[in-house]
Amino acid sequence: MRHFAQLVTQLDQTNKTNAKVQAMVAYLEQAEEEDKIWMMAMFSHRRPRRSVKTSLMREWASEITGIPLWLLEDSYHIVGDLAETLALLLPPPEDEEREEKSLREWMQFLIDLRDKDEAEKKTALTQAWAQLTQRERFVFNKLITGGFRVGVSQKLLVKALARHTGMDENAVAHRLMGSWTPESSSFSELLLSEDIGDDLSKPYPFYLAYQLEAKPQDLGNENDWQAEWKWDGIRSQLIKRQGEWYLWSRGEELITDKFPELQELIPHLPDGVAIDGELLPYKDGRPLSFQVLQTRIGRKNISKKILSEAPCLIMAYDLLEWEGQDLRQSPMSQRRELLEKLVQQSNQDHLLKLSPLAEFNNWDELAALREEARERYSEGLMLKKKSSDYKVGRKKGDWWKWKVDPLTVDAVMIYAQRGHGRRANLFSDYTFAVWDGDKLVPFTKAYSGLTDVEMGKVDAWIKKNTLERFGPVRSVKAELVFEIGFEGINRSKRHKSGVALRFPRMLRWRTDKKAEEANTLEDLHILLNE
Q1: Is the residue at 158 inside a domain?
Q2: How far is CA 48 from the centre of its chain?
């Protein structure tokens, strides 16, 4: 644990990509194999589920330190990180000659903790805290709470592993896909074995696109590009191998059982195929909103009613495997041709649709088509170079997403809350409202979009204009107006306003507007009806 805690500290103290990669490589060079696989799991979202409630951790820390629970809670809101707060408040380790445990041993400790009763958990956790230094305790608490974010993306992990093993980055990325766990796999089996394994379900790493910031004319000859409509669902891979089928989300979650209607499609697909596409709720000839799809996410049992109200299909974008052969190095045009053939032969239009191309003769025509995106229930366009191969991760050059401009409203800030982590000393999370007659009705929250300078100014204003305090939240004078951008709007019974926004964020601080000039609830409902 000592070496892993040192690694986490190094990663937390730098924003430089090369420094983070080098720190991980240095750790891998000296770590035992069992610790390597757990380090990989930590940085690729394969952490064990939480074994202790954070409310109990607070109570037990309050008892150990003699600090009243209310004061510990207030300290947490100021620090902005529970793991760090507890690590700072708990006394230093009792035994300087304590036994050093490996990362694997501590992870096994947390796994075993799940099956203990509350009294046993308290004893075990109290003893663990007493053995760890402040830095180790901070990391240990992070592993318990699940809030383990140290600025390491999957891409950086892949770079470090490739450098450590001498493997190609794309090969490493592919081996990290699938349903492996640190309990069932070893470092050597996963990365160093010549046989990639018999996991028939293993998906391919997804190719992701950046938002197009320049004009499409800057991409060159329009004849070199194809344009597709961009859909708002769950990016997925549908795989069929040796008669078995698997459905993976982009977040590497195996979601086969959650969409049983696709079982009907499988007999119509040949073996050895992997389809990249969008999982969409689709009914009456059009996609439904993402909010409808959310009614199915996380459900253990899919009833007939849900299947009737939110039937789903795959909108196929690409073909990554055909007759068991990896097609990713083939040009986009060739993969598209095979995909069209596959979809046509399956003849299951209610379960597998070919993502239609947006036909255009020049960039101006395509720009005009893009303006029709919302009428087509689309987020915009995807631009793909016809000669492009299928890359790994987010890359610039061959694929671009050209989304429609966001919907916008001007809203009044009425509540503010401190952020977490590096923003713990700033009020950075805001609640916004619009007018309903002479009353302000809250309708959304946002925390991104302002520059550091703007956030500092808003933070100073909040501290001077607080009306009431509710724990970490402050109500403020209804004076500041912000332009809120969002991708979509839906009806919601859960919100007082009756609406829910998709991806809300602050586009700008409207210092030129007074609160009474903000939009109304009626304006939001007009957008909803449109």
Answers
A1: no
A2: 18
Q: Residue 525 burial by CB count (10 A; 0-12/13-18/19+): exposed, middle or buried?
A: middle
What tokens were used for 529?
């009806």
Looking at the fold, whether 306 and 324 belong to one and the same domain comes out as: yes
Q: What is the pLDDT of residue 486?
A: 92
Token couple for 425: 């000393």
Which stretches of the chain score pLDDT less than 50? Answer: none
Q: Which residues contact 464 (CB under 8 A, 6 or more apart)?
A: none
Assigned token pair, 264:
């009907």
Instruction: Tell me how far the alpha carbon of residue 70 is from its chain's centroid.
Output: 33
User: Do residues 419 and 463 share a domain?
Assistant: yes
Q: Are 472 and 391 in contact (CB under 8 A)?
A: no
In angstroms, rounded to a whole number, what is the distance separating the alpha carbons of residues 462 and 395? 40
Q: Would you say 104 and 3 are in contact if contact means Cβ atoms under 8 Å apart?
A: no
User: Given CA atoms 494, 497, 500, 504 in this order, what sign does their dihedral have?
Assistant: negative
Any domain includes 154: no
- Domain residue limits at 279: 207-403
In a domain, 153, yes or no: no
Q: How far apart are CA 61 and CA 122, in angstroms?
A: 10
Q: Is residue 455 part of a domain?
A: yes
**Rounded CA separation 385/331 (Å):** 9
Q: Give the separation between CA 530 and CA 526, rounded to whole angstroms.
A: 6
d(CA 64, CA 90): 7
219 lies in the same domain as 129: no
Number of folded domains that form the chain: 3
Angle separating helix axes 33-42 and 103-113, nearest 10 degrees: 60
Residue 411 forms beta bridges with which residues?
482
> Quick one: DSSP state of residue 479?
T
112: buried, middle or exposed (CB in 10 Å: 19+, 13-18, 0-12)? Answer: exposed
Q: What is the model's pLDDT at position 179?
A: 78
**pLDDT at position 195, please?**
61
Residue 142's Cα: distance from chain center in Å? 18
H helices of 316-426, in order, are: 332-346, 363-370
For residues 237 and 377, membership in a common domain is answered with yes
How far apart are alpha carbons 520 and 517 in whole angstroms?
9
Residues 381 and 482 in one domain: no
Measured distance CA(10)–CA(3) in Å, rounded? 11
Q: Same domain, yes or no, for 342 and 489?
A: no
**Exposure of 481 in the CB half-sphere (CA atoms within 13 A):** 16
Does 416 lie in the same domain as 399?
A: no
